[in-house]
Every structure is written in C-alpha cells, then in structure tokens.
Write a structure and sequence with these properties.
The chain is an alpha+beta fold. It has three helices and five strands. The chain is about 40% helix and about 20% strand.
Length: about 180
Amino acid sequence: MVSEPEILDELRRLRARVPQLTGALTAGVDGLVLAHDTPGVEPEVVAALTAAALGVAVRMADTTGQGDFRELLVRGVYGYVATYAAGESAVLTLLAQDRVNVGRLHLEGRRAGARIGELVDAWEAKAREAKDAAATAARTPPKTPAKPPVRTPAKPPIVRTRSARGSATTTARTTTDS
C-alpha cells in the first residue's frame, strides 16, 4: 500500500491551509480508505459513498461529453463535500464548513489531489513492476549453474622403442608339399 504517512502529512497540511475543513480523506476509486483525517466521521462510510458518487459523476461527465472526471461538489445546509481526482486510481474527499471560501477550497483541493495522485500512481507503478518481475521469474525456469567441462585425463603417449636386433640371424625356410 502507498505510504500512508506521506498521504496523511499532505492531508494535515491541507487542513492547515484551509482552516474551515472539517475532514479530509483519500480513498481508492473502489472505495477503500488509503488515509484519513476525519474526526467524528466514519472514514469507511465516507469512502464507500465517495466511490458511489464517483461512479455517477464519471458517467455523467462521459455521457454529456465533458471528458474525464476532475471534481464533484455537494453543498448541504451545513457545509460542503468536495471530491477531486487524485491520479488514476484514487480520489481526495474534503469536508468543509458552510463558510469556506469555495474558490480556495477548489484551489487547494486540486493541488493536494495532484500531489496525492503522484504518490499513489508512483506506488502503483512500482507494485506493477514488482508483480511483472515476479511473473517473469515464475515463467522462466531457474537457471542451473553452468557445469564446468569435464576433462578427461590425457592418454599417456605411446612410446615406441626400438629393440636391438641380435647379430645372429635365422633363416627360415618354408617348404610346400605338392
């Protein structure tokens, strides 16, 4: 999983820059919480609802020809819920009081979404590379260590010696009977 402390640091810095934020959450597009700073709110519920709203928002943008999803803003009686794209596979959801400057909320939310998206996408790219490397290693048979060539001992050279011939010679006769 992505380094949660890095994302959590970004969420805390964002809440410091926009004091009217009451909560910040990063989740995968599947609705699983990656990191959160949401006191008084159940992050798993917010993440699941964000995923559902994201599905509708993505479909709406696509159907109307508005392009890829970038952000979603919901205004309630007591404040705002803003969701921003954070890379390819994550979203940033911010909870804000009704008195928040919406322009500032969008500016800071977009910036934080981009930074969090970079963190999540980089982690996912690393995870894919590791998975691909593991799959490649599993497909290729393990290399056996190369065996050194077997050396057979050299045959001893055949040494031919001449024997001395004796001075006495024997004459052999062969006879054939007819």
